Structure of 3-beta hydroxysteroid dehydrogenase/isomerase domain-containing protein:
Amino acid sequence: MVEGSFDKAIEGVDGVFHTASPLLISYDHNVEAKSLPSDSPIKIDPSIEGTLNVLSSCTKASSVRRVVLTSSCSAIRYRDDVQQVSPLDESHWSDLEYYCKRYNLWYAYAKTIAKKEACWSLTCSTANKYTQLILTIVKGLRGEYQSTTIGFVHIDDVIAAHILAMEDSEASGRLICSSSVAHWSDIIDMLRSKYPTHPFDNKWSSQKGDNNPHSMNSNNIIKLGLPPLKTIDQMFDDCIKSFQDKGFL
């Protein structure tokens, strides 16, 4: 957050990956979505200022040729017309005023604001933030599942997409990397059939506005040479095997 704090670290490097930024949100569904007062649950400043700080250091370093910023498809898929305009591509943005605020989707709101204001050269891929969530689901510790329809992508494909975006001079702007879109209920059904010895609950959150069917178009990054994306089955099989190898299951 301190201006210039990345100058020394970035000096002399050819490329920079910015894969995460702080996004502090208080999940209170009683918060009014009509306005964003100073005590709003959204803390966007760290995300914007932190990213701008990195980019500022990149512009100061004459050696830097490319910057890859990891975003989230949450900045794309939250809109009333999502089914009509699917498959979603890099030209689409989540609707802040009439959708995210209405359903208190603060994460999507903050991600969209941060990326619109902070990113001048953006490579978009879904962040791998669900590992702990998957472990609690498989162990039957989740209690209540998210009523969410969301894009999935294998971490190996995420890594390959980042490397491609860094090394290929043709890569620019936003690039979607999403293998499949599914509701969490479909994932639970799939896991239950493949791993019947593990406990799975059937409780779903009452959150609205987060389960609209849609699809994602990853053609642009595939055209750049990204290999065929792995399936949902492969993602979860590899994830659970990793849990088993590490003794988590």
